[in-house]
Amino acid sequence: DGDLQTDGNRSGHLQNGELALANEGLRNEEIFRIIGAQLAEIGDQLDKEIQARVVNDLVQHFLNENLSREEITRCLSQAVEGLARAIPSDMEQEKALLVLAMVLTKKVANRVPSLLHRIFSTTVNYINQHLHAYIVRMVSERGP
Fold it and tell me: Membrane spanning segments where (predicted)?
């Protein structure tokens, strides 16, 4: 009950009048899909701008097992902020940072799939530290 199906949809079994809660969940899912689609479109545009050297440098940092979680998050942060300097000023800075972090995560994981868990957890840590308030604000602006 309430679990995601393999196709990404919620289970259809509702018990004990949970319909209102389920409807709110569906509304939130729609909001997240809209935001995700917008971020993906921006990501596709920015993906072409990221040089292989930046990705290769990040891969080398992530392969270094001696780096602490904080150090590796700092490396990701520096890469994202360095790339963000080249973003047109008409794009919201926080949105650019979020999209760049996600695009870099994808590029590192595609380059070295064994780093998926480490880059993903580092990116989540980075987003939580630097962009949490922005994400909350973005979701609440789309809400009811």
Answer: none
Domain with 103 in it: 35-142
d(CA 86, CA 15): 51
Residue 11 domain flag = no
Instruction: Single out the residue of 18, 38, 15, 7 nearest to residue 138, CA to CA.
Output: 38
What are the tokens at 50?
């990221």
* Contact between residue 101 and residue 123 where contact means Cβ atoms under 8 Å apart: yes
Whether the pLDDT of residue 20 is over 70: the answer is no
The predicted-structure confidence for 32-78, as pLDDT tens digits, reads as follows 777 777 777 777 777 777 888 889 999 999 999 999 999 999 999 99
Answer whether residue 12 is part of any domain: no
Report helix, strand or coil for 68: coil
Contact between residue 107 and residue 50 where contact means Cβ atoms under 8 Å apart: yes
Is 1 contained in some domain?
no
Assess if residue 23 is contained within a domain: no
Q: Residue 88 pLDDT > 80, yes or no?
A: no
CATH, residue 56: 1.10.437.10
| CA 28 – CA 142 distance, rounded (Å) | 9
